[in-house]
Amino acid sequence: MKKTTVINSELSTVIAGMGHMDWLSIGDAGMPVPMGTKKIDLALTKQLPSFQDVLKNILAELEVQKIYLADEIKTENPEQLAAIKELLPNVEIEYMPHSQLKKDLAQTHAFVRTGEMTPFSNIILESGVTF
């Protein structure tokens, strides 16, 4: 049995298959996922699992060099933004309109759906290298 943090088999497989500059996205329960994008649905009920719990779990196994967030998170969910910055203090952030972030999900290896119920709790993680 796997000893590391991510034990969800679908998610573990996606992370293991990622290379430098590949994208993985995590989002709230309401985020629309483009047709053709793999969706790993972890949502159980409202707030379970939370966006932060899933992000922390993924960050234990994925090297991240850059993140992409919606501009709207700055005003509509500053608490979530502060929590993201705390988890990724030295990672470059690129902001874009939420409409663009939704379109860019089509370029991710997978979208991980959480039970999060706060607005604009969505992120694209760009993988880095460990060497």
From TrEMBL:
Key words of the record: Carbohydrate metabolism, Cytoplasm, Isomerase
EC number: 5.4.99.62
SUPFAM superfamilies listed in its UniProt record: RbsD-like
Membrane found in the keyword field: no
GO function term, MF aspect, one: D-ribose pyranase activity
Gene3D superfamilies hit by this protein: RbsD-like domain (3.40.1650.10)
Enzyme class at the top of the EC tree: isomerase
Subcellular location(s) per record: Cytoplasm
Tree of life domain: Bacteria
Annotated pathway: Carbohydrate metabolism; D-ribose degradation; D-ribose 5-phosphate from beta-D-ribopyranose: step 1/2
Pfam families named among the record's database cross-references: RbsD_FucU
Catalytic activity: beta-D-ribopyranose = beta-D-ribofuranose
Active site: H20
InterPro entries, alphabetized: D-ribose_pyranase, RbsD-like_sf, RbsD_FucU
Binding of substrate, residues: D28, H98, F120, S121, N122
Record-stated family: Belongs to the RbsD / FucU family. RbsD subfamily.
Described function: Catalyzes the interconversion of beta-pyran and beta-furan forms of D-ribose.
Quaternary context: Homodecamer.
Name of this chain's protein: D-ribose pyranase
Gene: rbsD
